[in-house]
Structures are given as C-alpha cells and as structure tokens.
Amino acid sequence: MTEDEHYFTADPTVAFRREPVTASVWGVDLTLDSGSGVFARGRLDGGTAVLFRETEAPSRGHVLDLGCGYGVIGLAAAVAAPAVRVTAVDVNERALLLARENAAALGVADRYRAELPEQVDPTTTYDEIWSNPPIRVGKQALHDLLQQGWPTTRLASAKGFRILETRRG
Ligand SMILES: C[S@@+](CC[C@H](N)C(=O)[O-])C[C@H]1O[C@@H](n2cnc3c(N)ncnc32)[C@H](O)[C@@H]1O
C-alpha cells in the first residue's frame, strides 16, 4: 500500500500515532488530533484550507461532513455556530475515532456524530453538505456525490482546487 492510499483504508494496519493540528478557520482557533493512516496527518489539507478561506461557516441546521477525515470541517462548523448539528461520515474507522475524540475535546460531542456510511440513516436529510471529496474514488463517484443535475456554481479556484456550491434546483 502506498502512503497515498492509507487514508482510504477502512481498517488501516499502519501503527496509529496521533499528531496535533492547529488551524484558524471560519474565525475559530482549533486544535485537533490527526493521526497516521488518516488523510492529512499533521496538517490542514491545502484544499480544505481553500474551502475555509472561500466560504462562510454554516450558521444553523443539520450539516453533513462527507468524508470527514479527522473531522476538521464539521468540527469547525460546530464550534463556529452553536445552532449547528453535525453528522460526519467516513469509511476510515480511525478517522471516525479521531473525529469523535476531537468533538469531545472541543465540547461539541452532544451536537456531533461520526459514523460509517452504512450506519447513517438513509432517510435523514441535511440542510447543508460539506465535503473535501475523496478524488481518488473517480470521476463518476464524484459526480454522484455532487448530485448531477443540481445547479453547481464555481465559487472560487485556488492552488489547483475548485470550490463548488451545489444547490437543489
Ligand atoms: C480529501 S479527504 C478529506 C478529509 C477531511 N474532510 C479534511 O478536509 O481533512 C476525503 C475523505 O473521504 C473519505 N472517504 C473516501 N471514500 C469515502 C466514501 N465512500 N464515503 C465516505 N468517506 C469516504 C476518506 O477516508 C477521507 O478521509
């Protein structure tokens, strides 16, 4: 398995070491634990940084953080706005463990759940879905995630990343 593939694995076998990440995003200062075998270990990902820079935090409602990694997007949303409730989803069990631990450390665990895709109630609806999507799943899967047919606007492009906003038509 290559270093790049690690974050994709549901049950990574590499030794698990936590590594703190500090980030100032959406007006909040966060200290989170990342970890080996989880996307963006020890750092805020460049694409996620662009996402934060080019958008405003959700202010209320039920937010889905799709592909949460160690949890930075959904946790930033929960910390930035007490009226936000977050469901975070990832295929990587370690990512979910870190996201839950981070939620507890930030004092938002009562408004934050982190689950495997198959644990999510498929009838649940969300006010907003936020994602730095897993591009390695391929174009078709990405298009499915973006719900083809919904109006998609490019909010910004920076450093090779595109920030897309998709709204129900
Ligand atoms: C680009 S990373 C973003 C992680 C985190 N949101 C961040 O900004 O640092 C994409 C994440 O999607 C997860 N992922 C991959 N396939 C997935 C799937 N089918 N369903 C949910 N999450 C998935 C990966 O494990 C990874 O943590």
Ligands bound to this protein structure: S-adenosylmethionine
Structural class by sheet pairing and helices = alpha/beta
User: Which word captures the global form?
Assistant: globular
Helix content: 10-25%
Number of strands: 8
Mean pLDDT: 89
Query: In this structure, how is the largest beta sheet organized?
Result: 4 strands, parallel
Series of H and E elements: EEHEHEHEEHEE
- The radius of gyration is 15 Å
| Order of strands, widest sheet | 5-4-3-6
Task: Count helical runs.
Answer: 4
Straight-line N-to-C gap: 41 Å
Query: How much strand?
Result: 25-35%
Enumerate the spans where pLDDT stays under 50 for 5 or more consecutive residues: 1-6
Give the gist of this structure.
With 169 residues, this protein is α/β, with parallel strands linked by helices.
